[in-house]
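cache lookup: miss for this entity combination. No prior model stored, computing from scratch. Input as submitted by user K.M.:
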Amino acid sequence: MTRITFELDGKQVEAGAGETIWQVAKRHEREIPHLCYSPAPDYRPDGNCRACMVEIEGERVLAASCTRTPSVGMKVKTASARAVAAQKMVMELLVADQPARATSHDPDSKFWRWAEKVEVTESRFPAAERWAGDTSHPAMSVNLDACIQCGLCVRACREVQVNDVIIRWASPPASPAANACRPARPAP
Ligand code: SF4
Ligand code: FES
């Protein structure tokens, strides 16, 4: 297997073919925030929450470490001031739209544990319109007021479990939740 060497937080490290910056960092015991990504087997990174942003020397914009693969000689900083500021900002924007932790559905969720780790459990920003929970399906319900639209549940259901019983609305009903995950409708 082809391996390449790059710099991660000032240290020379190796990456295997297809290995992402996030995965290499994890092997080297560096924790990068992640919400839409799961390191569990068979989960495909999607790169949509931007909680895992890192700085790459010479690049104008930060990169999502869960999807970006390193190249030879790349210099990556996972905890530079710029990277940490971006990680915190993403969390603060997401926290703004959540029910407060104390009254949330699960104060010990992955979301709130990461919020605590990056030290952003409150937000300066106004909350967006909250969506009501969807309890219309007989077998499952979703707390849309806590959903960050990361799509992880849809990938889990469709690509890992291969059940395909959760969908993402990409069409009407037109509402702020139009792109949220929902149980697929049962057959009439
Ligand atoms: S319900 Fe699905 S899309 Fe919403 S936050 Fe949870 S895993 Fe992500
Ligand atoms: S964890 Fe990388 S973009 Fe969401």
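stored under new cache key. The CA atoms of residues 8 and 41 lie 24 Å apart.
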